[in-house]
């Protein structure tokens, strides 16, 4: 299948790289969400499916992953496709012998029909895509973006709030390094009248370039540094982990790692009755376990499962099987 290199998806996923939420437009998001709605019964009811039969997808993960890796792997298999799974290529592939990223991509594109890649460096997935003549999907590139996480997050918001516009969202934690937030802001900017409060320590705010770039899209971004500035009417709380692996100085990490933590008290004071609490996971102390049973918590239930459904839809569309 020849690859298409034009940027915006425009409702046609076939043969496309999926690198950034910047490629998305409303018809493409609609199509993706409807496809996920239609395909999820295959997973829930364990129905045999031939949708991806004959296809093999490389999962090339240079960084640790549980949910993204596990959901891509099972999404593809659930639809009858196969995977070539390379976790930690630095140890198990010829990368360990000094092979370049470009040659690594040339190798796996010779054997498979798509490459899902995670890498610690921002921009590495773009380099891979520029070499590959098959679709490359960004499963997280350093502090850059994590588009498929944002897609499943938006699908979860749509499913629970019934809309993706006119929302007040609180994002908390690591705005500087959190790639899921970088993609989510881009995605929510496509819809009207959204306001995002960004709660983080001063040192973990968005870069000024990102802040300017995002603000020009029509979305309202409000940076806050204290819990007492959390608006009590927020529809969504999107909590995140402080990204330890991005810190050069771990003593700096220690100072901020659980500066913002969801406790019962915080929920009781600032969260409205019908909000939802999300987190891309993993959490490392920033949401107390006592919150898990709150009916507003969706991170361990809907949000995680939706990762599989959205990735089923994305692979079926990208490989041109739907
Ligand atoms: C996120 C990531 O890798 O960016 N995890 C995920 O894919 N669900 C968030 C994180 O690691 O904090």
Give structural notes.
The structure is a single chain. The protein has 322 residues and is an alpha/beta fold. The chain is 36% helix and 14% strand. The chain has eleven helices and nine strands. The protein has helices spanning 26-44, 67-78, 89-92, 101-109, 124-131, 147-161, 179-188, 208-215, 250-256, 264-270, 302-318; strands spanning 56-61, 82-87, 114-119, 136-141, 168-172, 195-199, 220-224, 236-239, 276-278. α2 links the parallel β1 and β2 (82-87). The two termini are 14 Å apart. The model has no long low-confidence stretch (mean pLDDT 97). Bound molecules: N-carbamoyl-L-aspartate. Residues 67-68, 140, 146, 149, 179-180, 241, 280-282 line the site of N-carbamoyl-L-aspartate (NCD).
Topology:
Layout: H1 26-44, E1 56-61, H2 67-78, E2 82-87, H3 89-92, H4 101-109, E3 114-119, H5 124-131, E4 136-141, H6 147-161, E5 168-172, H7 179-188, E6 195-199, H8 208-215, E7 220-224, E8 236-239, H9 250-256, H10 264-270, E9 276-278, H11 302-318
Parallel strand pairs: 1-2, 1-3, 3-4, 5-6, 5-8, 6-7, 8-9
The structure holds N-carbamoyl-L-aspartate.
N-carbamoyl-L-aspartate (NCD) is lined by residues 67-68, 140, 146, 149, 179-180, 241, 280-282.
Number of domains: 2
Which parts are unreliable, with pLDDT below 50 for 5 consecutive residues or more?
Answer: none
Query: Please, what is the average pLDDT?
Result: 97
What is the C-level CATH assignment of the largest domain?
A: Alpha Beta
Radius of gyration: 19 Å
Report, as a whole number of angstroms, the end-to-end distance. Answer: 14 Å
* Helical residues, percent: 25-40%
What spatial form do the alpha-carbon principal axes imply? Answer: globular
| Level-2 CATH architecture of the largest domain | 3-Layer(aba) Sandwich
The H/E string reads HEHEHHEHEHEHEHEEHHEH
CATH topology of the largest domain: Rossmann fold
CATH H-level superfamily title of the largest domain: Aspartate/ornithine carbamoyltransferase
Describe the main β-sheet briefly. Answer: 5 strands, parallel
Determine the number of helices (DSSP H or I, runs of at least 4 residues).
11
Helix/strand-derived class? Answer: alpha/beta
Strand content: 5-15%
Total E-strand runs: 9
Widest sheet, order of strands: 7-6-5-8-9
Bound molecules: N-carbamoyl-L-aspartate
